[in-house]
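Handout for the seminar on molecular recognition.
Each group receives one record of this type.
Step one: identify the two inputs.
Step two: read the structure output and locate the region that could contact adenosine-5'-triphosphate.
Step three: write two sentences on what you found, then compare them with the reference statements printed after the record.
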Amino acid sequence: MKLSIQARAKINWTLDVVGTLPNGYHDLDMLMQSVTLCDQLTIEDAPECTLSVRMQGGYVPADGSNLVLRAARALQEATGETRGARMTLRKYIPVAAGMGGGSSDAAAALKGLNVLWNLGLTDERLEEIGLTIGADVPFCIRGGLQRARGVGERLTPLPLKRPLYLVAFQPCRGLSTKEVFAALHEEGIDPADRPDNDAAQRALASGDVRLLGRSMGNVLEPVSRRLRPQLDEAIRAIGESGALGARMTGSGSAVFGVYAHAGDCKRAAQQLMQAYPACRMMRTAECGVVITREA
Ligand code: ATP
């Protein structure tokens, strides 16, 4: 059997830190959204697990530290499965960008191998295994629009009135999540930077993009902007292109903008691509992983 799997990126409409968990991690409150930008993972029967990575520019390891191979190993350990899989990953999601690229690849591997190996695990069980690999993996398994609490694993699905159109790109070098949270710890949070999660949630449910734009926010953005000053210019450029909201996603360093209509978004993407060739137009997606059977 050969499966072709889309591993979709995510953006954060909002990201707030609302406390500290008993284990010392930050207690987050976020609105997370799958988008159509995706990596492609193909998997087929093989005696051992192997991975090759194809990408233009940038680098991710193809060894045992790649989240795809870590996911395969975690699934084998959880189930006692001894079969392998030949896996090929084509990367299109920017790396260390806050778009959940590695997490989505891990989610795609878990869901795909569950089918290839005929394991019959529920998504809930895959989410538990996924959480041992990364905090964003459970979201990537569920996908769509979710309110996420805890480290991002306590998920509540939410309605989205209509598909929304976005641009996103990474205007500078990547940022490590660890580095950004360490800097936040030093600098603290200005209450003015907090998003209005409830208003953003209402805006998404009613399709009010103006209210969404006003309610969006990311408490990590000021810290990341200081670490990568190019973010200022990129967010300003998105705002000037007609976006109703322009923000950084996750811990960065990708930024995105949301528009009232597909046509506005298309014109903005064409304009932004002149200064930022990596700029891509995308749409909100209803799930994080899409599996197609090839043979
Ligand atoms: P998140 O949004 O979940 O915080 P991110 O988008 O900031 O994640 P990733 O692109 O997932 O970050 O990559 C973070 C690190 O993980 C990179 O430094 C990379 O070397 C490593 N990595 C391991 N496997 C992968 C993978 N399949 N794709 C991307 N990066 C990977």
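Reference statements: The pocket of adenosine-5'-triphosphate is lined by residues 60-61, 65-68, 95-103, 105, 136, 177, 250-251 (CB under 6 Å). The two ends are 6 Å apart (CA to CA).
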